Structures are given as structure tokens and as C-alpha cells.
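Dock zinc ion; give full complex structure.
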Amino acid sequence: MLYRLLFNLRNLCCAYDGWVWHIIFSIRYYCGIGFKAFMRLLGPVMIIGANLLFFNIIYNYMFHLLPKMSGDNVMLYFTHFLFGFFLLSNIEFNYMGCIFTPPGHPEPCLDPRRYLGLKINHRQRNLVDHYAFNTTLELEPAVNYRWCKHCKCIKPPRTHHDSITGRCILHMDHYCPWMGNCVGKNNYRYFVLFLIYLFLGCVYILMVSYYVVQLVTIERAPNSVALMYLTNAAVLTFTIGLSAGISVLILLVFHTFLVLTNQTTLEFYINWEERREAKEQGYVFKNPFDKGWRKNLIRVFGDCAWYHYMNMSVRDSVPCDYPALPQEYQSRDLESSGRRTLNHTAPSTSQ
Ligand SMILES: [Zn+2]
């Protein structure tokens, strides 16, 4: 039965080949648009949801857990209050930094011929456009300049086109629905610091709520509405802290590895594949951007003491660590006519 159905479907496809493919591509096209719209809408919903969770935990901490834990000790109350405030302010600062900092985009380049730095006549244009749209300029092994036909720009190495925001992102790591933004060159440090402080916050809130649950259990006070609220608040906070803490810990370990090896999330998968292919062909693949864990760490956080790069501050974005586009590939015809030249993102400033 199933075989006959598939056979008939195949015959139908062959008979109406053009129409069937047209329908399939149309469905795929509109599904793609629907998915992008859904992801764009999901961003604000997830941000509101995350802040509601924060608010819930802050409320439980301030009005249930902290008074119970401190008792009559005012000093203890203020010490915990200040520590909780320190963690919360760092979490929110880095979260907002990640949301509102543009991740970084390459300069648009409206004329693909600029990629080649050529002056061509009209007759050659189609040929050169075709070449420009399909070529890759490899400066070093695995260090490529490419052309993005969507953004009409030159994609420097480590740049990828994000289909959700529809733009090329420098040092693209991933699109984060919790941020409603791409994580890239300009907001990667905020993202990693957000993970670190969120994990510390989860550990702290887990310890506090566990301590309060222990206190309530030991006291064995008679049942009351206040006690019920307190127990519920402690258990709810513990549950949220545990589930968030485990998820954040996995992400934090992964991104610590990426920072120490100078890879983005996308590059991790690309390099994994490259490494596998190299092994099959009998040579060792080396990530061209990996300069050793210490330099890789400095690249993201800056050359300063740990307590400086952990504090709340607006600093320069992660520097470029690839060679600049060679001069001969930059526009000569536009320069000579006095128009704006290709403003490449930055030359090599690797540390
Ligand atoms: Zn693009």
C-alpha cells in the first residue's frame, strides 16, 4: 500500500516536475520566512521571561529567604544584601550589554568588482560579477575573505551571515534567543561575563535556599501560612536555581574552552569537521587563530588583572586577529574618483 502510494507520488512528481519543485521551493521559502519571524518575535518574549524569573528570585530572596537566614543579625543581613546586589547588578549589566550592543557588521560594499580591485568594461561585467560572487580569497590556510551576496559586503575571516537578523556578523558566535541578538565581536565579552555571574548567582541562591530549607526543617515550627510561604519560596528558588545553574554550567564550560582555544561556536563545529578530514588524510589540523591559552584569554578580556576584567565596564571589543584585506584587492577606481574607499574593519592586531 505504502509502496504504491510512493510510486504514484513519484510518477506525479515526474509528470509535473516543474510545478512540484515550484511548490516545494515556495513552501521552503515561506517556512524560512516564518521561522525567521518566529525567532525575531521570540527574542523579546524570552527577555521578558528571563527578567520575570530574575524578579521572582529577587522577591523570594529579599522578602523570605534573607530575613529568615539573617534572623536578628543586622550585620549579616547587610553583608548578604550587598553580596546579592553585587551579583545581580553584574548579571543585569552584562545581560543588557549583550542585548543592546550591536555584535559588529562588515562595511557594505555595493560594487562586487571592488572585491577584485579591477576596472572592467561593461562587456566583462557579468563574468566578473559571477567570479566575485563565487570566489574566495584565501590568505592563509583556513583564513578566507568571501563575498556575501545577501549583504553585498566582503566577509572578513571569522564572519558569517546570520539568516535570522539577515546580516553578516563579525566573529559570529551564535544567535541567542535569550538576548534577541547575535553574539559576535562587540558583545562576546559581555556574554561570557554574563554566564560567569549567572552561574555564581545560581550557586549562591542554591546555597541560601538550601540553608533556609534546613532551618525550617530543624525548627519544626507548627504549620502556619507564613511558614508555608517561606517553604514554598525556598523550594521554588532552589528548583529554579538548580535547573538554571546546570544549564549555565554546561554553557560556561563550553565557552571557557572556546575562549581558551580562540574559537567561536560556529568555528568549533567547522574545526571539528576539518580536524576529522585532516586525520583521514594523515596530517594534523591546527586552528590558525589559536595563539596559546594565555594570549587567547587576553584577547577576550584584555591584558589586565582578573578583578579588572571581571568588573562592570564598557571596553573595546575583541580585536581582529586576521590579516587585513591586501591593498591590491581594495578599490582603486573609487579611490581615484575621490569617493569613500573600502573601510576594512581593522588590520591584524593580535596580541
Ligand atoms: Zn551577509
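Observed: Residues 148, 150-151, 161, 167-168 surround zinc ion (CB under 6 Å).
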